[in-house]
Amino acid sequence: MNAPDLDADGRRYRGAAPGQRQRERRARLVEAATEAFGTEGYRATTVTTICGTAGVGKRYFYESFTDSEDLLLEVYREVTARMLEAIHVGMGDVEADLDTRVRVALTAYFQLIADDPRVPRIAFFEILGVSPAVDHAYHDVLDALVDICLALITPHLDLTDHPSVSVRMLILGLVGAILIIAQKWVLSGYQEPLPEVVDSACLVVGAVLARIGSTGEQG
Fold first, then answer.
1. Distance between CA atoms of 54 and 29, rounded to whole angstroms?
2. pLDDT value of position 213
3. d(CA 75, CA 81)
4. What is the per-residue burial (b if ≥16 Cβ within 10 Å, else e) of 190-205?
5. Residue 129 CB neighbours (<10 A)
6. In the chain, which ranges are continuous DSSP H helix?
7. Between 68-91 and 47-54, two packed helices, what is the crossing angle to 10 degrees?
8. pLDDT tens per residue across span 106-120
């Protein structure tokens, strides 16, 4: 016996509740947009193209997103969540020494960038200059990266000598340095081998940590 179609009250359609079907359509739109924005670019992609790739009627696009910028924000949230998760997982064993945890976290971050070029294209380039709302989302991600880095290194700092507010500003500078390294690596076509890129990033981080570390060592 076939599953019932949508009834007059909009309760079910072919065995799936309307809310479930909407979530499935939304997921297909996000997947299609990730591919399009990450390969062809946000400005070169139309809503019609995304709907066609996702197999979703255009009228259903607007049940989930107000416009293409709204969809870009959702795609950006998803790809940056993958980046943040890679760093979290890379931090790994809390018993490991700080240098090891920094290296493993940075390796995981750069590995994701290498494995899926759509991620850096969306997170580093397509997101820039779209609108104030998108710029705000970009800076929210920067703050999240700073929070992760602070969680990683704060146990190794003597905050009596280095107030937390100044440490946060310093870590923001480190995050910016890592982002520039990543962006230049992508723009070069991944010319440098991954281990060399990680070594460079670790050197930058290590130089700062040697200066502000709780051991009191001075660079």
1. 5
2. 65
3. 10
4. eeeeeeebbebbbebb
5. 10
6. 18-39, 47-54, 58-64, 68-91, 98-115, 118-120, 132-153, 164-187, 194-212
7. 60
8. 999 999 999 999 999
